[in-house]
Amino acid sequence: MQIEAKGIGFRYGNGPMLFQGVDLTLHPGEIIGITGPSGRGKTTFCRILAGFEQAVEGTVLFDGKPLKKNGYHPVQLIFQHPEKAVNPRWKMRKTLYEGWQPDQELLDLLGIKQEWLGRWPNELSGGELQRFCVARALGPNTRFLIADEMTTMLDAITQAQIWHAVLEIAKKRNMGIVVVSHEAKLIERLCNRVIQFG
Ligand SMILES: Nc1ncnc2c1ncn2[C@@H]1O[C@H](COP(=O)(O)OP(=O)(O)OP(=O)(O)O)[C@@H](O)[C@H]1O
């Protein structure tokens, strides 16, 4: 099982090509970094990998086949801004249980407190909200995780807690991870390989 992106190119509408010829193969248990200056298309590329956006050129294959359009998506994307990734009209319990029901062990590992489940998204801090987005993405059918600046907005302690939890679960389940970050140290510490954008 692997994700294989070959010769990926993309443009928004009739604009110029944002990037072309991007190749990435991610195997279970592997961690690949993506880095590069702002605006070169890293987030866009992640959205293509996760099936939110269609490449203009090239193919993305999951386990040798095109990604399915419906059902639980085996490639889960975690965004930089958790407040944009949750429904403001849903309490956290509903958001958390959208895809699956995480057990207490996972909630504890991510430091999610029971009392937060009854709150609205705007009653949580960014770090608390991001823990929910991470838990939601870690369903049993998730094979690959794309962490697009997942902890950029958070303080060092929260960053470390969230990464510790994600790496522990990824290891246990032999998940592959794509890490998008401007932080060279984080990329260097976590990744087996790095792709430079731009
Ligand atoms: N929906 C859209 N329509 C048109 N242009 C877009 C759209 N989304 C993003 N862009 C543009 O595409 C370019 C790439 O954006 P993207 O977010 O993929 O870059 P990035 O490398 O992830 O940047 P950063 O490091 O700042 O997060 C930017 O110039 C952005 O303005």
**Count of alpha and pi helical runs:** 6
Tell me the number of strands.
Answer: 9
CATH class: Alpha Beta
CATH superfamily: P-loop containing nucleotide triphosphate hydrolases
Structural class by sheet pairing and helices? alpha/beta
Described by the principal axes of the CA atoms, the overall outline is globular
The major β-sheet equals: 5 strands, parallel
* Order of strands across the main sheet: 6-7-8-3-9
Strand content: 15-25%
| CATH-derived architecture | 3-Layer(aba) Sandwich
Count of domains: 1
Task: Report the CATH topology name.
Answer: Rossmann fold
Helix content: 25-40%
The string of secondary-structure elements, in order, is EEEHEEEHHHEHEHE
Which runs of at least 5 residues are low in confidence (pLDDT < 50)? none
The kinds of small molecule bound in this structure are:
adenosine-5'-triphosphate
GO molecular function: ATP binding; ATP hydrolysis activity
GO biological process, one term: transmembrane transport
InterPro entries: AAA+_ATPase, ABC_transp_ATP-bind, ABC_transporter-like_ATP-bd, ABC_transporter-like_CS, P-loop_NTPase
Keywords: ATP-binding, Nucleotide-binding, Transport
